[in-house]
Specification:
alpha+beta; Beta-Lactamase; Alpha-Beta Plaits; six-stranded antiparallel sheet; 17 helices; 25 strands
Length: 614
């Protein structure tokens, strides 16, 4: 009777605890998963948008380059010269017509040659005006067209030296929208990718999206819904980011937005907010029933186990003795298992002497077990910890307090070769009747540290020049301002914009332009002190922070030095190139006392310098 009452009491208490713990674990898991799913989706939206915009820009520029190639072919120039010289020559026009046809198999759907008055000289392909046409901000007169799929139309002048003979107009299919559709649909059933062009004040025209590829939007669309700008408005304004808002259909969406390179177009990747957790909620309903069944089964099993434990309680001491006997006989097996553990395992006694040193520890520290067992564990530590280790042990015995026992810590170790390396260590204390041991699990984290440092470098430095980027610049500038306030010194901020760089980039290509930017970065770095900072703002813009300035006159000396070095000729792959620079200067605290004010004033000063001739 007493056993039954105790069994019932323990079963009820255990059942309540089991229900509470299960519900708490389920709710906590759902909330964590919800936040994680939302975070992952937002990161995926932003990353996918940036990648799509980059791919679309590259495809457009590739189409422009191919059109320019047509206009610069010698046989095209010669044929236009012949028609221009003899307009009535039928054979010359026939040759030009054949040339136009010859370009169709290489990717163009339309090739058309017109004279300087706009009269058609030759044409191949079905050329006609289409209802959707968006002009791009490109180096050539370029349009995006829509005719059941996306077309790129480019008008390029054909020149004989400085003399303009006419124009070539090409149209080519772009595969971007077709290829990206399945990628976007994989995000969810309401995911959509939209591309729009500005159309007057607060208006835009848009291509069919990936969600409704057959829905054609031919009429102008407002950039706002109910006095609230839609995400595409910010994309067309050159901004990028992610918002919870309404799209131009009035749907509540999560939208990532950004500009498409230098085309003047905007791109928005969105998904309905109701679709964010649809899959998670569906799975939750499925799991809820299973969780309830498992809860009931667990309660029943616990009831059975508790009854069984109560009946066997009187035999507990015999079982414990038997288990101790088995534990002693399995010591050899334990040693064999330790040899296959991935982490290094080191067992030391209360005097700090090593008793166990498994295979992983041998690989980490470079010692063989037989050579290190019996030695003091301080041999594995660099100075000053090696000399202080015995003091740590003595203090722990006296106070029972330690900063490393029971918690994972990052420390440094030393290999047999003398190499110092980072490691993660977790120490457990084991007290028995005849022994007082410390068991350390050790893991070499050198590769993890290197990977983390590499990731930090990528996040804080410009990928092309290796200079600090905007993120690191902001930190360096803030530090310089703090030091200047403390020392009552000045800080100068220089905003540099290269003059003539766009001409080099457009005429010789981005590869040559990138080499010029690298050379400029090297000259800037070589012209400054080690305590100064030079960062790439973006494009051909650089920012220099001159810290710890006692007088303003020093700034004039530095700027003149920079101008002299930057305007010297550049030898890029055998070509002698020249660029100039316009520099805007602001001084802390004369022109501003905070980072944002200084950057804004510096930007204004640079544009004033450029307006007055650089």
């Amino acid at each position: 009777m007493k056993l039954q009452k105790e069994d019932l009491r323990i079963s009820l208490i255990g059942g309540v605890i089991l229900v509470v713990l299960t519900l708490a674990a389920g709710v906590s898991t759902y909330l964590v998963m919800q936040r994680e799913v939302e975070s992952i989706l937002k990161r995926n939206l932003s990353a996918l948008l940036q990648n799509n915009a980059r791919v679309f820009t590259q495809e457009i520029h590739q189409g422009i380059r191919e059109s320019v190639t047509v206009a610069t072919r010698p046989f095209v120039i010669d044929s236009l010269k012949a028609v221009d010289a003899h307009p009535g020559d039928i054979q010359a026009r026939h040759n030009l017509q054949e040339i136009a046809r010859s370009f169709l198999p290489v990717g163009f759907s339309v090739v058309k040659f017109v004279d300087t008055k706009g009269q058609t000289m030759a044409r191949a392909g079905d050329f006609r005006l289409l209802p959707f046409a968006a002009r791009l901000e490109a180096s050539q007169e370029t349009f995006l067209l829509w005719k059941r799929q996306l077309l790129l139309q480019v008008l390029v002048p054909v020149r004989d030296g400085k003399r303009r003979l006419g124009f070539v107009i090409t149209q080519a299919h772009l595969s971007f929208m077709r290829k990206i559709r399945p990628v976007v649909r994989a995000l969810g059933r309401t995911a959509d990718l939209a591309v729009c062009a500005p159309l007057g004040t607060n208006q835009m025209s848009c291509l069919p999206g990936t969600l409704y590829p057959r829905r054609y939007i031919s009429r102008p669309i407002s950039q706002s819904v109910k006095d609230q700008f839609v995400p595409m408005h910010y994309a067309l304004a050159g901004q990028s980011g992610l918002r919870y808002t309404r799209d131009y259909f009035g749907h509540q969406v999560v939208a990532a937005y950004g500009a498409i390179g230098d085309t003047g177009l905007g791109m928005v990747l969105k998904i309905h907010q109701s679709d964010l957790f649809r899959t998670l909620n569906t799975r939750l309903r499925q799991v809820a029933g299973l969780l309830l069944a498992l809860l009931l089964a667990g309660a029943l099993m616990m009831r059975i186990l508790i009854l069984s434990l109560l009946r066997k309680r009187t035999a507990a001491e015999e079982e414990t003795c038997k288990a101790n006997s088995q534990l002693r006989t399995s010591e050899a097996r334990t040693q064999a298992l330790l040899a296959h553990v991935a982490d290094g395992v080191i067992v030391i006694d209360e005097h700090g002497l090593i008793e166990t040193f498994n295979t992983a520890a041998e690989q980490i520290f470079g010692y063989e077990a037989q050579a290190i067992i019996g030695a003091n564990v301080s041999r594995l530590m660099p100075e000053p910890h090696r000399s202080q280790h015995d003091g740590y042990m003595k203090r722990y015995k006296e106070t029972g307090k330690s900063a490393v026992i029971g918690v994972a810590r990052e420390l440094t170790g030393v290999r047999r070769s003398g190499e110092i390396f980072p490691l993660e260590i977790k120490i457990r204390e084991v007290c028995a009747e005849t022994a007082h041991l410390f068991i350390a699990a050790v893991r070499d984290i050198t590769q993890e540290k290197e990977a983390a440092q590499h990731a930090l470098d990528l996040a804080t430095h410009d990928a092309l020049t290796g200079l600090p980027n905007r993120l690191l610049l902001a930190d360096r500038l803030e530090q310089a301002l703090v030091q200047a306030r403390r020392a009552q010194n000045r800080v100068a901020l220089l905003f540099l914009d290269l003059d003539g760089f766009k001409t080099i980039n457009d005429s010789l290509g981005h590869a040559i332009g990138d080499l010029v930017l690298k050379a400029v970065a090297q000259r800037l770095t070589a012209s400054l002190r080690a305590t100064d900072t030079v960062a790439r703002q973006g494009g051909d813009e650089f920012i220099v922070v001159l810290s710890d300035l006692a007088t303003i006159e020093a700034v004039d000396t530095v700027t003149q030095k920079l101008i002299t070095h930057l305007t010297a000729p550049y030898d890029i792959q055998g070509q002698i190139l020249y660029v100039g620079t316009s520099i805007g200067v602001t001084i802390f605290p004369d022109d501003g006392v905070d980072r944002d004010t200084l950057l804004k004033n510096c930007d204004i000063a640079m544009y004033r310098a450029k307006e007055t001739g650089g």
